[in-house]
Amino acid sequence: MTATAAPPPPAPLLEVEGITKAYPGVLANSDIAFAIRPGAVHALLGENGAGKSTLVKIVYGLVRPDAGRMRLLGAPYAPASPAAARAAGVAMVFQHFSLFEALTVAENVALGMERPPPLRRLAGRIRAVSAAYGLPLDPDRPVADLSAGERQRVEIVRCLLQEPRLLIMDEPTSVLTPQEVEILFGTLRRIAADGTAILYISHKLEEIILLCESATILRGGRVVAGCDPRRRSARELAELMVGRIVQPPARAAAPAGAPVLEVAGLSLPAAWPHGRALHDVRLAVRGGEILGIGGVAGNGQDELLAALSGERPGPAAAVRLDGRPIGALAPAARRMAGLATAPEERLGHAAAPDMTLTENTLLTAAGRERLVRHGLVGWRRAQGFAARIIAAFDVRTPGTEVAARALSGGNLQKFVIGREILQRPRALVVNQPTWGVDAAAAAAIRQALADLAGAGAAVVVISQDLDELMELAHRFAALNEGRLTPARPVEGLTVREIGLMLGGAHGMQAARPAAEGVPA
Amino acid sequence: MTLLAGIDPVAVAAALIVAATPILLAAIGELVTEKAGVLNLGVEGMMILGAVVGFAAAVATGSVLLGLAAAAAAGAALAGLFAVLVLGLLANQVATGLALTLFGLGLSALIGQGYIGVRPPPAGRLAVPGLSDLPVLGRLVFSHDVLVYTGVALVAGVWAFLRFSRAGLILRAVGESHDAAHALGFPVRRVRALAILFGGACAGLGGAHLSLVRVPQWTEGMTAGAGWIALALVVFASWRPWRVMLGAWLFGGIAVLQLNLQAAGVKIPVEYLAMSPYLVTILVLVIITADRPRAALHAPAALGRPFHAAG
Amino acid sequence: MIRLERRPAPSRFWTAATPLLAVALTMVAGGVMFAILGKDPVAAIRTIFWDPLFHPQYAAFSRPQLLVKAGPLILIATGLALGFRAGIWNIGAEGQYIAGAIAGAAVGLAFYPLEGWFVFPLMVVAGAFGGWAWAMIPALLKARFGTSEILVSLMLVYVADKIVAAMAVGALRNPDATGFPGSRNLARYPAAANPDLIAGSGLHWGGVAALLAVALVWLILARHRLGFEVRLAGLAPRAARFAGISPGRLTIVCLGLSGAFAGLAGLFEVAGPGGQIRIDFGSGYGFTAIIVAFLGRLHPAGIVLAGFLMALTYIGGEIAQFVIGLPAAAIQAFQGMLLFFLLGLDLAANYRLRRLRRAAP
User: Which of A105, B6, B261, C54 is 20 to 30 A from C330, comparing alpha carbons?
Assistant: First the structure.
């Protein structure tokens, strides 16, 4: 066993021993062991796919382990359901919030409690708790109207109202701006100071060094180390987590020349009642250049991609490719013109899960690769193209006639990006190209994007991962409530400037002064 | 306008309330089912099965109330079959709903063979001394059968349940996002199964109102699309209980009006008058859905999506 | 503990095996139903599935009938299957079938008693147009306003039912048959009639049209871009929009095609075996075709087999009615059951059962 030895003085709050869980084809958790002290902030560190999610689902009673046991405050702990976990004093804030859009804040909080008081009394308690921890919330607002940061507050308040002994936070900062992260950390420290332990799941090293006093590092479903992250460097932690050093792609100097892809005055109404509208978006990307667009999820990323892919066409002049107005063209015609796109959601949007890789080439390559002629599908050509993508982008698959959903996230993403790049587009727009992708595949995808730009294409990368954008892009712009900031050269940008471009503390301007006095 | 001269407005209004009751019952049940995120297109099948089983049970026992109970049980039983297929075996909801309707029509015809031309026991009407004899109000409000009041009570009950009770809140949450509800540990499938059964029982009652009160006799295929109109009504009402009642009265009014026009001997062929409820349904659906964002505002977000808890 | 687990790809074996298993289970459950009705279940099943084909006395009559009934079922179901695959639910084929019959018959009757080679072809065109136009109502409302095509197409069945009744006693009534509702008998008007192509075979132009429809839809699904678009829209609607497929256009194409096929089926029926526009012209083919489409797994080849099987239950049911007194409605319930079993077993193609070890305490 390689787990941390629990520090002797205080008895551990939660002890985990020998937890093992297998899914068909994957050993998600293998003989996991660690312990958390009361009031500690304990990190669970690991890459995507390292087994963090499965482990916390086991602790929260959503998944039953195949083997192993847990003890909470010395007593055997084997929650059969989240309700049992909550009753035992374990609460969890999910990465993808388990909130109900159409219901109000108070109703959402009530749903997360075993015996909620009447809604009116609950509203009062929500106000009280949120004020105490610097998380202002209006209990009567529908969740659909809240920003990502505010939604997270609903989850946290919901947990705090139950006075938990252990609070699990699953990748809580992935949807926050740097300023919001600071506020969150202040809140978490206060919670821990009040005696509630926090199990903090993340793959972001700086955060863990800043916040946590102990860490368990997972790789491939096993514990590879336990340590005090405050005494380690980010580099040491990264090596433990990844197991090898990943090379960042080489970045060529920003080129000069006429813009290839231009967007001017692009506005788009919201597609559904709580959707996001785009307001007067402007951008220009030269050949050979990569423009990074940052922003917290839900600020118009999907809408911008839909406007560029042609799923939601607008006025012709709003989008120009090499000077030619293409803003009113349908998706197929835009692709023929040379503008390729890859949306965020791989399964169901960029690719059809139940179709084979061969069939999935037809989604975007039917025209440029001449896979369809006179209305008839050239299946052999399509298969050939799929095979070329698989070979060129090292897609791990038994063959071309495999359903897309059978591929791992990283391999499918390589296929999707490869499908666009092999068509030699003049411009490529990708949304969250490495979200939920393992490090090796992410590095390969970033390199491929850099190479495409190197070959003279204009590339737009929309991402929530600021590190990725800093590494890849020549210039940076931020999407904030459907508006795009002017782009600035990446060189010399500070974290604080980026945070302000992203909208500062989203919807937190109303926060009490206490929230602003939090140490960073 | 001389045409309408022969029509007594109070009689029409009273008849309207009665005519609205079958679709009101079926629609309020379907509303609950849909609020839980399940689209059951088998309303027509459950209604007609309720119509024939209720009729047969009432004839056999001589009691309309027992007939109604049997009808509700029959509707719920057929809905139970739907629940097993859709929740247990993850079958496609649209196709399974259609199967329910086709099967219900066949099975009801089979059960009803011996009952064609039979008269059911008379359904009792409310008779409150004094109140029922009031000039207009008496006929309008205080002289109906028990199911008319049941329908109104159900609307009020469903409204209060969805709005104020914890169970109602959980039901709405399940219909909004089954994954989030599951993550919180709510029994998604059990909630949905109960909602489906309630919907079936209501549809069965609605059918029995047709065969025991409104017509009252058994004929094959007598629901004649009422179940489908009830489905349309839920959309029309934007999933809000009181608007279901309003819509049911609108449709009841059209049905009564066209019957009165037929009786008054209008020079339009009977067939064209008889198709008016269906045409009005289409028209109303178009008007409601034309304003897409507003139509979607109250729709349960997980409506019709299958739920399979992974992991 | 046993739990369901999604297969990485649909099982080919179970995709093909489930319809057969569903038929077998329906026979068992149907047998129970027949037993409850006081009939010998084995005799009933044999009468329905065996006698129409091989009974020394009935087979000669019922074998051609098989083609007569299977033709319209296959023709309608092939059209429906295309839409169902795309998630476009035309459940009003019955109405389009009636509309096609009215339009086709009206054209034929308009020429009466003129003899000309062109009359029947014109009727075919009018029949297809009638069904297409009737289907365009839900299609356009769906494409333009997002109105549920399920509810609108179904409502239009009732409307078509009333219209055909009005026609039978009104505009299309046979002026020579005083007092009786119903149009002239087209079978007795050679230029408009759709007789057996080979006398006594049961094969009329409707059967030929069904075969052509099957071949056409097969080609579309296997090779044509439309077939790919239909499957993509059904499997992943958002990916379909990303690929540039307009949901509105697809709705119009699919509903239009299935409407035209149903209209053709109505026309061939009214000019052939049906003979005339009657008050009760709608015979339920449009609804049974939904079962046929699913039983055939939405694939043209499967639909051919399913169409014949369903025709067999119709004819066998008639024989059973007449020989052992099985109620006609029992067959309808029997067909409904078949669809239930089929949908329930569908699970096997996409999921598998796994036995789980109990979690350690």
Answer: C54
